[in-house]
Specification:
This protein is α/β, with parallel strands linked by helices. The chain has 2 domains: 2-167 and 337-362, 3-Layer(aba) Sandwich (Rossmann fold); 182-334, Rossmann fold. 43% of the residues lie in helices and 17% in strands. It is built from 15 helices and 13 strands. The protein has helices at residues 18-31, 44-47, 66-79, 92-102, 114-123, 131-134, 147-154, 195-208, 242-246, 258-263, 269-276, 289-292, 305-314, 317-334, 337-362, and strands at residues 2-7, 35-41, 59-63, 82-86, 106-111, 139-142, 161-163, 182-187, 214-217, 231-234, 249-254, 281-283, 300-301. Strand 12, helix 12 and strand 13 form a beta-alpha-beta unit. Helix 8 crosses helix 13 (305-314). The longest helix has 26 residues, at 337-362.
Length: 363
């Protein structure tokens, strides 16, 4: 198939979680034989921090404005079997209206921020999506599954809401024998609604046990934030260094945005990356987590600093390694880039088939 994706960024992971998701998906689609064109709005903050300026899979092109997008890529969008517009694309409503007007194939909105998007729509915020545009897309691909899919259909009148979670590229994330530098690591951009959980599940345990070592990697943290002495700070960690980071810790911490916790069924790509590396995960708690990993066997959940500390202090090395292996096996079976590409193919086939049936029924 010919597929066009208009996304926030694939060339830069600075300050966003979209790039690693798109990289994994485009790689998976390309390996399955599809011709993928990724179109990215050229923005200075990404131009200054491009950790993959020329992705080795698919084709990536930058555009400066909506006018340039229309002038240069109209024919690509018209000819494509599938055109995807992602959340947070600059001038996303204008882009979406253009795509749904000229595309000859199936159109889809890929919402990597579903709970945030729906909150915006409820407030009348149309930064990158409007209620009217929701109904124009043939397919609504959501990072959030579960009850949110029903809500999308009934309340927002999305035609075909389907879950398309993030995924991991197993050729980039796998176990390595490395010296253990940290007892627990956390990888995530600063977010004020995640900070209380970071305090509770990592920073408080760090203050309580100075013999343990911790690390927080991610950008945009306030300079005034005071870190415990046994917590190492890494201001930005490009994806090429994620595998080394995971494999240098005994456990990794997963913390979920408040909107995602309320919605449930919103896994972070960090879950799949760490698990693919065979590193056990200590996670906050939210609905749907147990459908992705078996709690207690493939993943641990913590609600307090005491629970975090108990895992770090009481789980034997044999138990830790076994848990990591079970989580890795689950990810390789269900959450790889190839598996997501296959799911997308099935969604497209289903939607295209429904459209064809509707045309025949009308005749």
């Amino acid at each position: 198939m010919q597929i066009v994706i208009l996304g926030l960024s694939i060339t830069s992971s600075w300050g966003n979680g979209h790039a690693v998701t798109y990289r994994s998906l485009v790689r998976g689609l390309s390996e399955r034989g599809h011709d993928v064109l990724f179109l990215e709005r050229d923005k200075p903050w990404y131009a200054e921090n491009r950790d993959l300026p020329k992705p080795p899979f698919g084709r990536t092109r930058l555009y400066d404005s909506v006018k340039e997008l229309k002038d240069k890529y109209r024919d690509d969008i018209r000819r494509a079997d599938l055109v995807i517009v992602g959340s947070y694309v600059p001038e996303g409503v204008t882009v979406g209206e253009f795509v749904t007007s000229v595309a000859g194939g199936v159109t889809a909105f890929y919402d990597i921020d579903t709970p945030v998007t729906l909150s915006k729509l409820d407030r009348g915020d149309t930064e990158y999506l409007s209620r009217a545009l929701v109904m124009r897309y043939d397919l609504y691909l959501s990072f959030t599954g579960g009850p949110t899919l029903t809500r999308l259909r009934r309340h927002y009148h999305a035609r075909e809401p389907r879950a398309l979670y993030c995924s991991v590229d197993p050729s980039a994330y796998y176990p390595e024998s490395r010296e253990c530098q940290w007892d627990m690591g956390y990888l995530g951009t600063w977010s004020d609604d995640r900070q209380p959980a970071l305090d509770r599940l990592m920073l408080d345990p760090a203050r309580q046990n100075s013999a343990l070592r911790f690390a927080v990697a991610g950008s945009l943290y306030p300079e005034a934030l005071v870190w415990p002495q046994n917590v190492d700070r890494i201001s930005h960690l490009p994806p090429v260094q994620h595998r080394e980071f995971y494999n240098s810790q005994r456990f990794t911490l997963n913390i979920t945005r408040a909107d995602m916790v309320r919605a449930g069924y919103s896994p972070s790509v960090r879950l799949f990356e760490a698990a693919a590396c065979g590193i056990p995960i200590i996670s906050d708690v939210w609905d749907g987590l147990g459908e992705l990993f078996t709690i207690g066997s493939e993943i641990l959940v913590a609600r307090s600093s005491a629970e975090s500390l108990s895992y770090l202090n009481d789980i034997t090395e044999k138990e830790r390694i076994a848990m990591g292996k079970r989580a890795r096996a689950r990810v390789l079976a269900e959450h790889t880039a190839s598996r997501r590409a296959e799911q997308l193919e099935n969604y497209l086939t289903d939607v295209a088939g429904r459209a064809a049936f509707g045309s025949r029924a009308a005749v």
